[in-house]
Amino acid sequence: MSASLAAPPRRTRGSDAPLIPLINIVFLLLVFFMVAGQIAPTRDLGVEPPASQSRAPLPTAPLRLVLRRNGALSLDGHAVATANLAMTLGAAPRGAPVALAADHDVRAGTLAPVLTALRAAGLAEVTLYTRRADAP
User: What is the pLDDT, as a whole number, of residue 27?
Assistant: First the structure.
């Protein structure tokens, strides 16, 4: 019987190799809880928060403007005539963002008066909704 006198392999000091799987698991759990977690609104706790000293205006949500295939126009879900659009938008804060969704069959001649009315109302920041070419 011969006994092996070979020493077991030495671990080098500072080797972090056994910690890598643990780090991977912690990272995956972090990502999971970030994706699966819910951000809930705060409940009414019966307190009145202090007033803000800042005079900066709150960001406004974009006005949603929809131009349908038949030329029908709606602003935030309410039908509006193209001729009255500039007057209707006059009540909006100057410089408010506008999100425009136009049907792909709408001609440029139908879209031009809408853009002119937006410019006349002082709303220059317009986002035109599109879809990816490979999307159905």
Answer: 94
Residue 73: closest CA among 61, 84, 83, 81: 81
Residues of the chain below pLDDT 70: 1-4, 8-14, 38-50, 57-60, 134-136
Q: State how beta strands 63-67 and 73-75 pair.
A: antiparallel
CB 66 within 8 A of CB 73: yes
Q: Are 96 and 31 in contact (CB under 8 A)?
A: no
Residue 130's pLDDT is what? 78
Catalogue the E-assigned strands of 1-136: 63-67, 73-75, 78-79, 98-102, 126-128
Residue 103 one-letter amino acid: D
- What is the structure's pLDDT at 23? 93
| Domains along the sequence of the chain with CATH | 63-128 (3.30.420)
CB atoms within 10 A of CB 127: 12
